[in-house]
Every structure is written in structure tokens, then in C-alpha cells.
Fold this sequence. Notes:
By secondary structure, the chain is an all-alpha fold. The chain contains 14 helices and two strands; from the N terminus they run H-H-H-H-H-H-H-H-H-H-H-E-E-H-H-H.
Amino acid sequence: MDKGRISSMQMGMMMYLSIIATAILTVPSITAKYAKQDLWLSPIWASIVGFLTIIIIIHLSKRFPQQTFFQICEQTIGKLTTKFLGLLYFIFFLVATGQITRTYAEFIKIFFAKTPVSVIMITMLILSAFTVIAGIEVIGRVAQFFFPIFVFSVFIIIFLLIPQLEPNNLLPVLENGLLPSLKGAIVPQIWFGEFFIMIFLLPSLSDSRKGMRWGIITILMVLVTFIIINLTVLFILDQNTEFYVYPFLSATQLVNLGDYIENIDPIIIALWILGTFIKTTVFYYVTILTAAQWLNLSDYKPLVWPLGILIVEVSFWAVPNLMVNSHLDIAVFPLLFPIMQTIIPLMLLLVVLIKRKLKNLESIKLRGYE
């Protein structure tokens, strides 16, 4: 369906930007509500979901090389069940893409209050649509171009915040035991579970043998970034972190070096736009692939514009405002995302292993009869 090829490193860059872009602004405050000063520990527990997800999809990919996710499903659980599962995943990715787009628009509207939300979303989706039409190879190259800009900018901002840091805010560590930090990991695990998207990218790798390596490297990079961002926010905002909608943005507003470097909000906006563009494009691409494979189409491109319109509609319907978005992040997605991204692939892998085991037992019995 898409003959383009990307490297494992480009895949890792796509995944890093797709996860970190939206996480660094909203996740620290949600984590702080439960973990308090132990919010820096929560990403460590949450990353376990990411490692498990990657192990599952890599094992599935090795057993069914160059197969799409739904081809794997067909060979494992049959065509009828795969059709039903494909519809579920299409709805899932459609809602997820709509939520990402709406979250981006709500953030940008803070700085452009008179711009309609619909205009912000449509502008982003048009750019993403052209990139999706260009194919996976172009998406990989765009991610490779934006990756060093994003990472360098984030760590420069953190470096500029060093004079404002108060490391004593970290204490006391584990004051109430591990439970608060474990509760704080419930929301971040959603983002780590998004490594499931790799299963749609693995068939396009030009160096598939390095897929596992770069998957693990990317998880470690995401984990380190999570911890550093959480520590930075904690050292500046202390216990007030949970009361900020965008704590990292609030922390960066304190940058002031001799009245020469201050008011770096435009940098944060630019980072958010770059990162969210990659995330929106990746999810848009996966949504299109899911729909095309479910409908048994030979080309996904005719679906790009119709589904773009549908994504805009879903973003208004599923996420009408920030309160609903926050409710989804806290009460709905922590249950839904692990089921779709980790548990179902795990069940597929178990079915594959059981079938292989039964097949081996049957072959042994046949040899015994002979």
C-alpha cells in the first residue's frame, strides 16, 4: 500500500516526537495530583508498559515478517473476528487523532484567542494530510529534520531554568511509600503504550533487524525526558504543580537571565507545533492505514481528505472542551488505551504461541505413530 521505506532510527524519532510532544505540557500536572513530590518516579513505573508493548509487537513482527497488523490478526484469529477488531481500531485511532488535534488547538488558542478553534485544527490537518499523502518516507524525513531542533530547544530551556531550580522541593522522597508514585504512573502509561503504533511502521523499515534496538533506545530517551521535565517542574513550582494546566509552560515563563533572555513563550509554542505536527501526522497516517486495510483497498490516498473532515468532526464531538479532555485523560483513556495498545496484542501473541505449541505436539504424535 505504501512502498516507501524508513530506517529504524527515523522510526524512533517519529515515536519520540509523537509521545513527548503532547506529554511534556500536560502530563506533569496530572501526575503531580497523585504522586506529589514523587512525580519524577512515576515515568519509571509507566515505562514498564512501553517495554512490554514493544516486546509484544516485535515478537509478533518476527513471527509474521513484513505482515501488517491486520494480516497478522487474520492468520491468528480469522477474518470475521479481524473485521470486527479492525472496526474497533479504526474508531480508536479516529478518536485519538481527534483528541490530539483538539488538545493542540486549545493550547494554541491561549495565545491566539480570537482565532477560531476550527481554523487552528483545519490548518494543522491540511499540513498533515499533504504529508500523509506523500507517504511514510516523507514523514520519516520530516521527523528526522525536526528531532534535533526539538530536543536541543527543550534542553536549552531547561538549562536556562537552572538558576530558578530548588532541589529541596524533591524532599521527602517516598514520604507515603510507593503507592502515590504508582498512582501517578496511571496516566503516563498511556503515552508509553503508544509504542504500539510501531507495529504499523515495522513493515516499512529498510533495516528491520534494528527495530527492537531503536524501540528500546526510544523508550529510554522518552523516559529520561519525562524524568527531567518532571524534576524541572517540581524544582520550580513545588507542590503547586498540580494546579497548573501547563506546568512546563508556566515554569519556562520564569526564565530571566540579566534581562537579556526572557519571555520565551514563542519557543514553547514553536516546539508544541513541531511536535504535535509529527504526532498528528503519525496518528493520521495510522488511522488511514487502518481504514484502508479494513476495507481491503490497494491505495490509502483516496481516504485522506474524507477522513480528515471526519477527524475535525470527531474532535468537536469527542472533546468539546478542556474539562472533557481532562476527564478523558484521567478516567477513560487509562483503561481504554492499555486494552487497545497492549492487552489485545498480548492476547494475539498468546494465541500464536499456543497454536505453535499445539502444532508441535501434533507433529510429535504423528512421528510417534509412524
